[in-house]
Design a protein that fits this description.
171 residues, alpha+beta, 4-stranded mixed beta sheet, two-stranded antiparallel ribbon, 6 helices, 18% strand
């Protein structure tokens, strides 16, 4: 059995919780989710009061929509989807948009630069994807910012080319 979250450590967390910042509570909640999923709370997991505080802080995380996210949602609407924005999962994660495809819920995550190290997803992004897919049973599709930018650039180029051809035909 793991000694990481033994009773002495859990007691120390309770004693020092006033020293923790919100990010610490969010990380503890993510650990709690993982422990529940793996059914590995052999050491008792988080004390109820601390678990509840962690969840409350996790749920209070800011969920503002970026211009990138608004653009992706607008595109989803334009092609016939009815996305639910900032969908809150049972585990407490917020998904940028939730759509239904052939009767199945699919999450759409619009991932800006803060979600990556280079072009690889960072740890926080990977953990969210894993937990949403395994705990909430919602498959996720990522829309990386550079792919969206390239898609928009190609679309704008095609639209401009089409307008230019139309002008030439009118001459």
């Amino acid at each position: 059995p793991s000694l990481l979250f033994n009773s002495a450590f859990r007691q120390e967390l309770l004693n020092r919780q006033n020293e923790l910042i919100d990010e610490n509570f969010r990380q503890l909640y993510q650990w709690h989710l993982w422990q529940n999923k793996e059914e590995s709370n052999e050491n008792g997991g988080l004390p109820d009061s601390l678990r509840d505080k962690c969840k409350q802080i996790f749920l209070s995380a800011d969920t503002t929509s970026s211009a990138l996210q608004k653009g992706v949602v607008a595109e989803l609407k334009s092609i016939g989807f009815n996305p639910v924005e900032e969908y809150l999962t049972e585990s407490g994660y917020s998904i940028d948009a939730l759509v239904e495809i052939n009767g199945k819920k699919v999450g759409v995550e619009v991932d800006g630069p803060s979600h990556f190290i280079g072009r690889r997803p960072n740890g926080r992004t990977l953990l969210k994807r894993r937990q949403v897919e395994s705990i909430d049973r919602i498959p996720l599709v990522s829309v990386p910012y550079w792919e969206w930018k390239e898609l928009r650039k190609n679309r704008d180029k095609k639209q401009k080319t089409g307008k230019d051809q139309g002008r030439r035909c009118n001459l």
